[in-house]
């Protein structure tokens, strides 16, 4: 039976109001201020662009220091994981959710180091897998009242090479869940949002979505995920080929794409990323999973990519294609391939440096420093 929360999420639906662009006047003010600061014009390189982007998102120059950076980790299992496409067993998803809650995952460590908050949402974790570690849920005394499960759509999305990931109703509920979560975060004062992922097998639907939307051949798009061997890579490539065939008519239909070859986590992330833009809140994109969801969100709510910055370039080949399609140049290129929001979080200090320089440096006039010779 549906909870009040998921019914409310479904009511939000997949039809988005228009996305308004970041503030053009604040952008011009920021660009002018960059020229007045005590440095040769342009000498801070892309840091200057990032600072200007934050100012335009905030609608003010100089921009405010980021006070509440939040990462929401969308956890969900995928039926395709049973096809041997990952180096790890599906049980790891639920086990990692427990690890996130205890603060022991990479996302927790990096978030702590950059002063960000982490929220985990179980949208489709499978708690009943054969051989699953049942003890992972022991921490939650009352499962129904557990906030991590408030937006649960289903247990594991469908096996996308053979069946739809979601029903039509589940797809709308999942998109609405992501929207509701973005609303909650913005209402609680978030000034920078990150979508993270946790779900064994999730590079398979993410790659299938990116390849479908960018026209990539599966053999070019498929990466090693958690570190699969050649045999698993061949199984994964076949699964992605079959999934792409099932979705071939849905290149222009983002809701159908999420339903056929996405999943509840990807749908919720897409809703979250689109709604952040509706709410005029900047986002740093993470790796392949988040960027696959972003490509779909860009179809759901045209104009939302203006509110996004690419945090890093994942080692996954399909991530590059997705970034290119979004015209995004990533801030970092560290060979990271973890997800969870870790790549985006690692880029947060760069964003903070961009804001700090634009806000706190003196102008030539204030500091009594001579400008460039005529
Ligand atoms: C311990 C562990 C922690 C993770 N944190 C994120 N992922 C990431 O790796 C998985 C995707 O790769 P694939 O498609 O190959 O399964 C997802 O769980 C993703 O969130 C993890 C994976 C593991 C094993
Ligand atoms: O780029 C990502 O987000 C990614 C890559 C590998 C495994 N999990 C996530």
TrEMBL record:
Q: Name one GO molecular function term.
A: nicotinate-nucleotide-dimethylbenzimidazole phosphoribosyltransferase activity
Q: Which SUPFAM superfamilies match?
A: Nicotinate mononucleotide:5,6-dimethylbenzimidazole phosphoribosyltransferase (CobT)
- Provide the reaction this enzyme catalyses: 5,6-dimethylbenzimidazole + nicotinate beta-D-ribonucleotide = alpha-ribazole 5'-phosphate + nicotinate + H(+)
Keywords assigned by UniProt, alphabetized: Cobalamin biosynthesis, Glycosyltransferase, Transferase
Q: Which pathway? A: Nucleoside biosynthesis; alpha-ribazole biosynthesis; alpha-ribazole from 5,6-dimethylbenzimidazole: step 1/2
- GO biological process annotation, one example: cobalamin biosynthetic process
Where along the chain is the active site annotated? 340 (proton acceptor)
Gene3D superfamilies from the entry?
A: 1.10.1610.10, 3.40.50.10210
Q: Which residues form the signal peptide?
A: none
Does this entry carry the keyword Glycosyltransferase? yes
Q: Does the keyword Cytoplasm apply?
A: no
Write the Enzyme Commission number(s) for this entry.
2.4.2.21
Q: Which InterPro entries match?
A: Nict_dMeBzImd_PRibTrfase, Nict_dMeBzImd_PRibTrfase_bact, Nict_dMeBzImd_PRibTrfase_N, Nict_dMeBzImd_PRibTrfase_sf
| Family listed | Belongs to the CobT family.
The record, for PANTHER family, names: NICOTINATE-NUCLEOTIDE--DIMETHYLBENZIMIDAZOLE PHOSPHORIBOSYLTRANSFERASE
Tell me the protein's name. Answer: Nicotinate-nucleotide--dimethylbenzimidazole phosphoribosyltransferase
Please name the gene that encodes this protein. Answer: cobT
